[in-house]
Amino acid sequence: MPAPLISNIDVVRVTRVDGCGRPVCGPEASYVTDCHASLSMEANVDEGDDITFKAGNGRQCGYKKACPTFNNFDLTYTFFQASPELIELMTASPVFYDYSGRPIGFDSCSVPCRAGFALEFWADVLGEDVCDDEAAEGAWIYGVMPWVTNGMIGNLELAGEAVNFELTGATRGGGKWGVGPYEVMAQDTAGTAGPMLTPLGPECHRRIFVTSVPPPEPSTTYVPVAGELCEVS
C-alpha cells in the first residue's frame, strides 16, 4: 500500500450542509481557498474509568482498563482571507452588502449551533512515484470532515502585523454526506474522476486518502453546488 509523506496544506473547500448533514445545492453553497496558515484536528476523547479490584489486604485481584470513547475532532482553522462568503459558510454570520449587492462584510452574531459545513482539504504528497499511473497528473492527500458544527471566529487583533482569522468548530458523526457531490478520486484505470466509491460509516468523522484527482481552483466568491449527489435542504 502507498506510504506517502504529507507536506504542506494546499487547498481547502467549504460546503454548506443542512441540519442533517446533507450537502446543500445552490449558487451560494461552497467556497475554495488556498489562503490559510494551518488546519488543526484535535481528537476529543473520553478516557473512561479504569476498574481495579483490591482485596482487604491491599492485594490487587483484578484490573480492567477503560475503553476510550472518541467524541469528535475539535477543529481549528487559521486563515487570512476576510471573505464574507467563506465566513458565512463556516459560521452562518450574515453577509453585509453594498448598494450594488456586492458582499463587503459580515455581522458577528450568536452561534447558530444547527448550522454546519463540510470541510475538505488537499495536501501535497512527497515520496510517491505518482508517474506509475500514466493517467495521473500528480498525487495529493485528500481529507474530508463531512459535518462540522459550532463554527465560530475567535479573537481578532488589528495591529502592526498580518491579521489571522481563527475558526473553531467540532465534527459530528453520521450525517448525509454520502459519497459527496464532488469528483475527488479516480473511478477506473483511465483515471476518470468521480465521487468517493463508498460513503463514510455512521460513526465516522473524517476520511483521508491519496488521490490523483487535483484539487479545485481557489475562488473569490461563492461556488455553486449542483448534481444528483446532493440534496437541497
Descriptive report:
The chain is mainly beta and 233 residues long. 3% of the residues lie in helices and 44% in strands. The chain has one helix and 15 strands. Strands 1, 2, 3, 6, 9, 10, 11, 14 and 15 form a nine-stranded antiparallel β-sheet that branches. Strands 4-5 form a two-stranded antiparallel ribbon. Strands 7-8 form a two-stranded antiparallel sheet. The longest helix is centred in the middle third of the chain and has 8 residues, at 84-91. The chain starts with a strand and ends in an 8-residue tail after the last strand. The mean pLDDT is 87.
Features:
mainly beta; 44% strand; nine-stranded antiparallel β-sheet; 233 residues; 3% helix; globular; two-stranded antiparallel sheet
C-alpha end-to-end distance: 39 Å
Structural class: mainly beta
Radius of gyration from CA coordinates: 21 Å
Give the helix proportion (percent range): under 10%
Please state the oligomeric state of the protein chains shown: single chain
Number of strands: 15
Q: For the residues shown, what is the average pLDDT?
A: 87
SSE sequence, one letter per element:
EEEEEEHEEEEEEEEE
User: Which word captures the global form?
Assistant: globular
The largest β sheet comes out as: 9 strands, antiparallel
Strand percent estimate = 35-45%
Query: Low-confidence parts, pLDDT < 50 over ≥5 residues?
Result: none
Compute the number of helices: 1
